[in-house]
Amino acid sequence: MKRATRAIRRSSIRLMSPGGHGNLNILISDIRDVKNAAKVQSNAQKIASEDLLNWAAGQENIAIQDVVGQISELHLLWTEVQKEFIGHLKEYKHTYEMILEGERDIDRAKQNLNVCEQKEGKIRRELRKSARKSNPADIRVLEAKLSQAERTKEIAQLEVADKIRENEAVKLIRLKEGLLKLSDAYMDLGKKSCVVFESQREIALQLPDVHSKELEEVKYAGAAACRNIVQQVRVKLRKCRRSTDISTTNSFSELPPPYSPGMRTSDSSHIFHSSHDVHNSSLQQQTPSQQQQKPNEDSDDDLVGAVGGASIR
Prior knowledge:
The protein is mainly α.
């Protein structure tokens, strides 16, 4: 059923896409679905974390209360990480929306050219009819109109060719930046995921072992360690964010345009070739030149007490 619904949705998107940009519209829709799915997952995880905290609050076991409380703090940080990643998915979708707008701009230029060609053809037909009537005045008027229509058509042809070249250059720039940013976003998500859940594992290890021990003898002494772990996670996530910002700036600050009119290098190659009624346009791509803060120790004393609900000493 889901496959059928998805197929129907994709077909409707393709049919409603003007100018033959169905695949691009489907891609934009798919990225939107990925973003929405990530948002749904993040919200579900947040609700589960809140319910876990509510459950732990009703326990008499101080170890469970403290560990789950600190893990809940980690989950709040993880929610922020996911929100940031969802924002990157939105930017990635916008990349293709801008590419689509460029394609539509070319469509409008081609439509204008078609109008000019139709107008020129109409005047030519009228001129042929007037020639048979041998009316010099009408012929001169129509010849002037034809000359104007031909100039207008030539301008429209040049506009189409220029827009195609410009759009291909911009498309390359947008696609490259979009893919690089998405790759950085996934790598950043992976790094922060490791930071959060490795720390969650460390906090979970603070729960005392009860094997071969009487419950009254088991003590919990990990409160300060758990708080320190959470503080370290905050510091590490801030460092990840700063390093990501610096990396992104270095990646895109010196990117040259992939197309420069009249410029060619020995290692350049044709990557785009499009023909129109009069003009052939080509695009050359040139190879661009390459170019822990230690947290304060928590001074609070550990929570020391029997796991079964004894007072904290």
